[in-house]
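Hi there, hope your week has been kind to you so far. It would help a lot if you went through both lines with me. No rush at all, and the record is pasted right below:

***
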Amino acid sequence: MAEGDNRSTNLLAAETASLEEQLQGWGEVMLMADKVLRWERAWFPPAIMVTFFLLLPGLNQHGIISKYIGMAKREINKLLKQKEKKNE
């Protein structure tokens, strides 16, 4: 029984190490995103808006915006139906 536990522990450790290695690069991205969200620099908000407007046509072309708008509408409708049921 101990041998099986040891194997599963080793497998879990290997998977954890692999996941940590894969996520290593995201640390820098998260730090920059945190700085942007906190607006640590005066030029962040205008830079975000310019970047968003540059990406907007591409996102719309691939249907990403339409997809998320549809998801939002479905969620709103679901919440409205739940609210109606509570009011009945």
